[in-house]
Task: structure prediction
Amino acid sequence: MTLCLLAAACGRGADAEEGATSAAGSARRVESPCAMVTAAEVASVVGPLSGEPKAKRAALGASCRYGFGSGSAPRYVELIWSDAATFGLVTSDGPDSTRLEGSREYVVYRRAVGGVGSRAFFVNLNGLEYSLWVLDGRRAVAVQAVLGPEELEKFKALAAVQLTAWR
Result:
C-alpha cells in the first residue's frame, strides 16, 4: 500500500489545477497548491526553474511540481500538502522494507531526521527518488525530488517554507 501511495506522490495521480485536498481532510484544505510557495522561493533553493509550476491532485494530497535544471535528464521538485493520517501511512513501516507491485520489487528505505517539524522521515525508493515527509501537528508536508541524499538540507529548507506558508 505504501508503494501505491508513493507512486501517487510521484505524480502518477490525476492532474488538477484547483480543488486538491489533503488525503483525509483533517488538515486545512489547500485550494491552489502552486500559490502556497512561489516559484522564486523554490528557485532560491534549487536554482533556476525550467518552466511554470504545475498543480496536481494525488492520493497523498495537493501538490505542485517545479521543473529545474537543464540537459537531457529533467529534474523536478514536488511539494505535497497532506495530513497526519497520510504521514502515518507513508512512514509506518520500519526503516527498511520491500514492496512488491506486480512483478517488480521495490526497496524502500526510511530514516528519521531532525531539524524540521515535530517528526520527519527521509524516504528513498530504490535510489531513484527521494522525499522528506514532515509532520507538524495535524499537517504533513512532503518534498519529493530528483535530488540526491547529499542534498537533504535543500529538502529541509523547502519543507520549512511549506510549513510557514501553511500557517
User: Anything to note?
Assistant: Residues 2-165 form a domain with the Protein Transport Mog1p; Chain A fold (CATH 3.40.1000). The chain is about 25% helix and 35% strand. The longest strand covers residues 75-83.
